[in-house]
Amino acid sequence: MKVAKFGGSSVSNAEQIKKVLDIVNADKDRKIIIVSAPGKRHKEDVKTTDLLLRLYEKVLAGIDYTAKKQEIIQRYADIINDLEMSDDLLEQIDDTLESFIKQLKDKPERLQDALLSCGENFNAQLIATYNNSRGIPTRYISPGDAGITVTDLPQNAQVLDQSYEALYKLRDYDEKLIIPGYFGMSRQNYVVTFPRGGSDITGAIVSRGVRADLYENFTDVSGIFRANPTIVPNPLSIDEITYREMRELSYAGFGVFHDEALQPLYKDRIPVVIKNTNRPNDTGTFIRHDREINSNNVVSGISCDKGFTVLSIKKYLMNRQVGFTRKVLGILEDYNISFDHMPSGIDNISIIMRSKEIENVEQKVLNDIRQRCDVDELSVEHDLAILMIVGEGMHRIIGTANMITHALAESKINLRMMNQGASEISMMFGIDVDDADKAVKATYEYCYNGEALQI
Amino acid sequence: MKVAKFGGSSVSNAEQIKKVLDIVNADKDRKIIIVSAPGKRHKEDVKTTDLLLRLYEKVLAGIDYTAKKQEIIQRYADIINDLEMSDDLLEQIDDTLESFIKQLKDKPERLQDALLSCGENFNAQLIATYNNSRGIPTRYISPGDAGITVTDLPQNAQVLDQSYEALYKLRDYDEKLIIPGYFGMSRQNYVVTFPRGGSDITGAIVSRGVRADLYENFTDVSGIFRANPTIVPNPLSIDEITYREMRELSYAGFGVFHDEALQPLYKDRIPVVIKNTNRPNDTGTFIRHDREINSNNVVSGISCDKGFTVLSIKKYLMNRQVGFTRKVLGILEDYNISFDHMPSGIDNISIIMRSKEIENVEQKVLNDIRQRCDVDELSVEHDLAILMIVGEGMHRIIGTANMITHALAESKINLRMMNQGASEISMMFGIDVDDADKAVKATYEYCYNGEALQI
């Protein structure tokens, strides 16, 4: 059994939806389909989810929202018209939006989740109805009915383990099933959304629940590139990548597959393939637990992400003071700050985190560290970029670090930090944000077009 | 005012002691002299401190120790004879040893410290007496009388701050003062020794206490080499190095100057010079707070130390779990384990420590981590060597990392770990212990004889 998930651009209009259903109906193993909200139809278009967000903002501000609501209904009306379907659904859409607004206007965070979930939810209903009308037995199933039970924190749902057992029962249906992505139901019976881009997460959870043989993630690209194509022209694409590599790359800026979606798959080793709705016969990129490593694919990909802050602490004889680092990390924990890297020496540590983790409490954190940790020097730098070179087995190849640092030195890029762990599949380089694109280009050239393969 | 400390080989026999006193008496600013116990007189000789340790072991085992005691007394008898001094001191030495053995035989740790302190203590008395006999007003002062008050943990004395005020009064003496190194007195009135090599520490504490203009540390080499001369033939020597560089290098294996001795000096910025008793006119190596950096001295030195253990922990989505690393470090703290480096990524950390920190409790630590931290994978590797490339400002020079990794790659040395922090003066490379010497040779060549200077 396969679970197939289709992203926003794949279900943005009637023509795309027909393509999707051609793909779905062409393979009897494609039993469960996760759909996103209608995405952009052209470059200047607005995603349905963003229209819903604007509707929410108007409701919250207490101003007239009718026009905004109509705009949303019109998105679905266009699709329904083009698919020559009955417009019964439109009335239902209007009713649902009004009913959420009425019930939840005093609970803004709940209202936001409920309204945002509508983009996927209406689309799933629409697509199920249409596929049925084409003579293929198809059933819409809401996340609640499917059994996707999540934690109750708005905009940040985490799946609860009980979901997996419930989802397994989806195997009993004979029809094809269409499930909206991006949200689940809490035990308190609220709609709660996953972080944005969360349809990938729904697909992963469902894939694990039904023990799918393959999770097909359909997007608008024929797989994952080895580097960002807006920086490197025509980059190579990746045939095969491991979960751990994918996680490092998506964490560091690869937008194709939501990194949180890997967790459920990782546990049961369910393979994923990233495919192109518009070119379904292209092989795509497989994400698996293991991959074969040869001299041509040591480095899987190169990513560079911006917006990092680094806290640097110096303390003479730091390594002698058992518990010092723990105390510093305890302060970060007090402010619920998660960090990403921590290069350290005998007398200093640097803690690297996304700037958004700390920006609102930076002064408080610094004061606490000064007061509680008796440091010699404490400094903060913003605007750091993190270059990640990712590849399984890379650390076993003599000269990988040399290859990368050589490429960076030749491009006159200063390495402000470096971090490579014992069993790592990645090397991290901290660089100035202004060097970010140059660093990606230089290391890409060196890894894939240069001397790298000879080492 | 200068404080001069003379190491064991500088005071190992009559001839050396004469050299020392020629140096001391040649400069009226050399007011306070710290002496070690008599060291080896030739390669196969045994240091007095080791003779004392053997005496202690015999006493502890309850077997006849007379011969061992006589051997110790003979060391001083040889010196006294050669200096043509009265042998009154020998009786006093015998009495002191017997009295410690009698008083402390039921407190083995106290006995050990008391006996070990005798090597320095007898030598200081001998040297003071002899210099007086040459007509130079000289006074022996015990650490207790000098005011060196320390914590009460045997073999691991830490100076207490009150010492500094007491030591300042040494400035009032007109005579030259001879103080034995290596031990202080606890408030509980026990002799407590510093870690071995601790005469450097005594010198540093006294230098700070008397606000010395310079701390001269006399040894048997004309300064500090840029790399271990038993590995690199005829290495360059260092003219000037900072406290922080020295600390990194001595921590990583440079034996010339005890790293703990830097702390008191660092606080008051008292410069140190490492000089050669046998070639007192050689300039030596200055250790200061700052140094001038030019393209020829970016890298101060290269060191490689063996005997490290690395704990590697993998946990999927580790960086999301606020507090995870703190929890792991809390376990190390429970076992009083200090660690030296911690390269980390978004899903893993490697904690590098000296093997002796963990070897007795390794299984317990691993079990605790497994039980309390819900890790995906936990592994331990022993026999890691740590290569440290140390230099102030190194991180500002584009290409330093490249230079080093290139040298290592050319020598086919695999980098198992790498760590360079935001404001670091060092780069750390984790390598196999078998590659240690090769790595020092290769990086030395590259940094000092190779293309490095052109970058």
Main CATH class of the largest domain in chain A: Alpha Beta
Q: Name the beta content range of chain A.
A: 15-25%
As residue ranges, the low-confidence spans of chain A are none
User: From the helix content, strand content and strand pairing of chain A, which structural class follows?
Assistant: alpha/beta
Indicate the mean pLDDT of chain A: 92
The radius of gyration computed from the alpha-carbon positions of chain A, rounded to a whole number of angstroms, is 24 Å
Describe the structure.
The structure is a homodimer of 455-residue chains. Chain A has 455 residues and is of the alpha/beta class. The first copy, chain A, folds into two domains: 219 residues, Carbamate kinase (3-Layer(aba) Sandwich), CATH 3.40.1160; 154 residues, VC0802-like, CATH 3.30.2130. The first copy, chain A, has 15 helices and 18 strands. In chain A, strand 17 and strand 18 form a beta hairpin. Chain A is globular and about 75 Å long. Chains A and B meet through helix 9, strand 14, helix 11, strand 15 and strand 16 of A and helix 9, strand 12, helix 11, strand 13 and strand 14 of B. Strand 17 of chain A pairs antiparallel with strand 15 of chain B. Chains A, B: It catalyses: L-aspartate + ATP = 4-phospho-L-aspartate + ADP. Chains A, B: Keywords: Amino-acid biosynthesis, ATP-binding, Diaminopimelate biosynthesis, Kinase, Nucleotide-binding, Transferase. Chains A, B: GO terms for molecular function: aspartate kinase activity. Chains A, B: Belongs to the aspartokinase family. Chains A, B: Its EC number is 2.7.2.4.
